[in-house]
């Protein structure tokens, strides 16, 4: 997929390996997420075009042992962390 090598993150990405939107190559680079103007470090999945993120709900687990999540709607911004570090060094 071409978005894996681009400087812009994919429109939709998940940290769950069972998801069709999981991309290990992209996650290895590191993704920064800003949701409604606040930088978040606990995002399980996001979609920029639809404007939502999936966040864990406390320490609750579902019946399969996976973290319970809730979908929150708002403005989503994403960037690669390795690119931001490279820009700061220049």
Overview features:
90 residues, alpha+beta, four-stranded antiparallel β-sheet, 2 helices, 7 strands
Number of separate helices? 2
Distance between the termini: 29 Å
The total domain count is 1
Give the overall silhouette: globular
Order of helices and strands, N to C? EHEEEEEEH
Mean pLDDT, to the nearest integer, reads: 87
DSSP E strands, number? 7
Largest sheet: 4 strands, antiparallel
Strand content is 35-45%
Radius of gyration: 14 Å
Q: Which structural category do the helix and sheet elements fall into?
A: alpha+beta
Question: Helicity range of the residues?
Answer: 10-25%
Sequence stretches where pLDDT stays below 50 over 5 or more residues: none
**Strand order across the biggest sheet?**
1-4-5-6
